[in-house]
Design a protein that fits this description.
By secondary structure, the protein is of the alpha/beta class. 32% of the residues lie in helices and 24% in strands. The protein folds into three domains: 203 residues, FAD/NAD(P)-binding domain, CATH 3.50.50.60; 139 residues, D-Amino Acid Oxidase, Chain A, domain 2; 52 residues, no CATH class. Helix 1 runs parallel beside helix 8 and helix 10 crosses helix 11. The protein is globular.
């Protein structure tokens, strides 16, 4: 890729910010990543990633992009003991109370199960080793710099914790990857720009997590067991192996059905959603830490792609554009898909970059948003408008999941969509629709 500028600044050194920096290094001579936390070489939980202690999975849609951006990463993670699903026999997934019937092997590495701190540390070390990239930690953003006409961002003003004065860092491009708490909409409003239209679906989700040492063979060949919420039971769980011979258990519950954090009550909650053999394995396992909880109030999406006016030299990225229910484990993978959209947008130069990137990024964001919001609206505990198209689609998806209990072809297609490998429209194509109707006994849709 040809270089289109001298210096790019990325705000935020989480997974989204690191992926953005990796792509920007192809188009800018220098890239500076700024984060307010202290970033250690080791895999440590940090304040700026409060959900980092909980279950994170990199689904195939994101795994494949990371494998292209960092060609040796997946092999080195595996060598470090990170489990990777390579056979469907190692994976048990029950969305909406329907266990998918899967067979054979996926086409390529399916799920990467590194803990969030471990994966982030591995990616950060590779990004930091790239020529022209600098990562500044313990550095607080004060203000965005702009030209006299306020039409272009010219850099950032920051305050380092070990410095007494503020510092201005010039940039041709600033990328806001500070997450769902991004202050960019407020900045746009304060400087005479229209903020992006916001979509919000309140779900009042809470999840609780604990790590265990599971007895060898207690779960057979399984590496991942997950059960999603369903209308009659708005709770679920995920249990999977991680590096260092640990297993992570995260329980989730919607409004009024939140998992407790007292150990015995936590296990009792999990037993209401887990199969008996999984519950027994957890009961016999050795707890490695305390139970930690996290609340997720709402799915949130900002429609930057709809804005008519936006400053040059500025982008929003990652959760700063869209933050969805973490129970569906799509956040890191959507960030990877946005990185691919950014890479493709940079090929055409700096002119009109924001408009081109936001439109390209809207495609994977749309895919994730429709999956997550549609699934959440299938639960009566989640408030929100349910127009006729939503009700019809959710009725059909329920039949798809029911068919996937018996038909491996339907199960694999459903899984490819949940893994961001295929658009949801694939489920409505005649070959799949006929299988769904046949398996459901030709019962007509409501």
């Amino acid at each position: 890729m040809r270089q289109i500028g001298d210096h790019a600044v990325v705000l935020g050194a989480g997974m989204a910010g690191l992926l953005a920096a990796r792509v920007l290094a192809e188009a800018y001579s220098r890239v500076t990543v700024i984060d307010r936390d202290r970033l250690l070489d080791s895999a440590e939980y940090r304040r700026g990633i409060p959900q980092g202690r909980h279950a994170h999975i990199l689904v195939p849609g994101g795994t494949q992009i990371l494998d292209r951006l960092f060609p040796d990463l997946l092999g080195e993670l595996t060598a470090c003991g990170v489990p990777v699903i390579r056979d469907f026999a190692e994976f048990r997934f029950s969305p909406g109370g329907h266990r998918l019937r899967l067979r054979g092997r996926p086409d390529g590495p399916f799920i990467c199960q590194a803990s969030r701190p471990f994966l982030e540390a591995q990616v950060r070390s590779r990004v930091q080793a790239l020529t022209g990239i600098e990562i500044l930690d313990r550095c607080q953003l004060v203000e965005l710099g702009y030209d006299i006409a306020r039409q272009r961002i010219t850099g950032v003003q920051v305050q380092r914790r070990d410095a007494s004065s503020e510092e201005t860092i010039g940039a041709d491009l600033v990328v806001d990857a500070t997450g769902r708490g991004s202050r960019l909409p407020m900045w746009l409003t304060a400087h005479g720009y229209q903020p992006p239209r916001q979509e919000r679906l309140a779900i009042n989700l809470k999840y609780a997590t604990r790590h265990f040492r599971v007895s060898e063979g207690a779960l057979g060949d399984l590496k991942v067991v997950a059960s999603g919420a369903e209308p009659s039971r708005p709770s679920g769980f995920v249990l999977f192996a991680q590096e260092n011979d640990r297993w992570i258990l995260t329980a989730i519950g919607y409004d009024g059905h939140h998992p407790p954090t007292e150990p015995n009550a936590f296990l009792a909650f999990v037993e209401t959603v887990a199969p008996p053999n999984v519950s027994a394995a957890i009961r016999d396992a050795e707890p490695l830490d305390d139970i930690v909880a996290y609340r997720f109030p709402a799915n949130l999406r900002l429609h930057y792609e709809k804005l008519r006016r936006f400053p040059d030299g500025l982008l929003a990225f990652g959760d700063a554009i869209c933050s969805t229910n973490p129970a569906y484990a799509l956040g890191m993978s959507v960030a990877a898909l946005q990185a691919r959209a950014l890479q493709q947008s940079l090929v055409h130069g700096e002119a009109d970059l924001a408009r081109r990137f936001f439109r390209a990024a809207a495609k994977p964001v749309d895919m994730a948003w429709q999956l997550v919001v549609g699934a959440d609206l299938a639960l009566p505990q989640v408030g929100g408008s349910r127009p006729l198209p939503v009700r019809v689609v959710n009725a059909y998806i329920n039949r798809v999941q029911r068919a996937a209990e018996h038909d491996p072809v339907v199960a694999e297609q459903f899984l490819r969509i949940a893994a961001l490998q295929s658009p949801a429209t694939r489920l409505f194509r005649p070959p799949i629709a006929l299988r769904v109707l046949r398996t459901n006994g030709h019962r007509p849709l409501p």
